Amino acid sequence: MAARILSFLPIPTASSRSSAPVKSMSSLSPPPRDHHAARPRSFLIAIPIPVAPSLLFPRPSPRSAAAVVSILPTAKPERASAEKLPSNGGGNECDRWSLRAIKAFGMAELEARKLKYPNTGTEALLMGILVEGTSEAAKFLRANGITVFKVREETVKLLGKSDMYFFSPEHPPLTGPAQRALDWAVDEKLKSGEDGEITTAHLLLGIWSEKESAGHKILASLGFDDEKASELAKSADKDIVMKYR
Predict the structure, then answer these.
(1) Which pTM does this prediction carry?
(2) Where is region (Disordered) located (predicted)?
């Protein structure tokens, strides 16, 4: 088969060889370069652009906690902005949610989505406090034998499982009791007249204040009572403030 294919290729004859001009070695050398000719240049030119590290990775401002307070929902329009929160009297700092409380709220939304619930209830707020885990309220709950696994189990027993084909919204809206628990925490902090932030302890006490809520019933089933709530209230303002440096 190879022989047949090669037979179609033109084979130079002796006459064609003799008629072909013989090139000298000098003619085979490349033509002389013209140093004045324009040389083609690449359009990809690496030009170093100085960029300050702060522009690439900006450091969060110490006032970021104050700006995030508006993210936490409230049923009271006068608290829709962090700037409208009343001052403690010292003029230095307003009552605002702590970073741990804000993180606990975000974890509560995530727990509601894990269980495929359409809303973020007081039971989700309770799980959010425990999932965040570093606050005084979370440590107090664990010291009394209340863990996130027990709360999640009691939640499923009380509220049941959601449809497996249901998908929660990205930010499940708060239930009525959960919204009142948030507002109760703010009100109690403002009534105290003390400096500092609204902590997860205030949030936990707000959950306990909603007697008919799922969070209150779950806490009661796990051994939390008014005596423990009073004990927690004494250290509600002692939570360590998390700040960016």
Answers:
(1) 0.64
(2) 14-37
